[in-house]
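Incident review: delayed structure delivery

Summary: a single-chain prediction request sat in the queue longer than the usual turnaround. Root cause was a stuck worker, restarted by the on-call engineer. No data loss occurred. The affected request and its eventual output are reproduced below so the record is complete for anyone auditing the incident later.

Affected input:
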Amino acid sequence: MSTRLSIFPLPGALLFPGMHLPLHIFEPRYRALVGDAMVRDRRIGMIQPRPVFARDEGKPPLFELGCVGRIAEVEALDDGGYNLILQGVALFRVLRELDVATAFRQVEAELLPVTADETLSLGRRASLETESRRFAEAQGYAVDWDQVGRLDDESLVNGIAQIAPFDAAAKQALLEASDLEARAELIIQLLTFFGRHDGDDRVTLQ
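Output delivered after worker restart:
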């Protein structure tokens, strides 16, 4: 069954079911999107635009898969913008883009079933934590590893996928991974690849 979604195309921004994503909204078209969502169903479709060299009238092509977020918290700002926290509801697949008069884009989409309570093998979990620690230390990130160790597998994997500084294509590959185990394995590969040192002994991100 298809549904109509107002979308926020944002490179590098992922959202997963059950996870939270903070957003600062300042562009007029996305202020309009938020206002519309608040009076309807509080839903916003987060999706990445495909990387292109020439923008097509401000409408770059979209990746096929995104995530519906429900506005869990909203703060209206004096300048007309918003601070939001979106809670991931479900992944969606774009069926077609709609021809609309609104400043923001809308699509017809299929919501995908949510897979709950996925877990990792002990070996995969250990490898993921090890590579994450190496990457964070190389970057100089301050991380509470005790707190990380208390996260369930799904929160750990999807949390890293959301915040890691990978490029848009890598982020999309993480979103499209077939299951949690596959996503964790891809994160490990990406942490190793993007965390390589260059000749100046600096960490190479992209």
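Verification: The first strand starts at residue 2 and ends at 9.
Action items: add queue-age alerting; document worker restart procedure.
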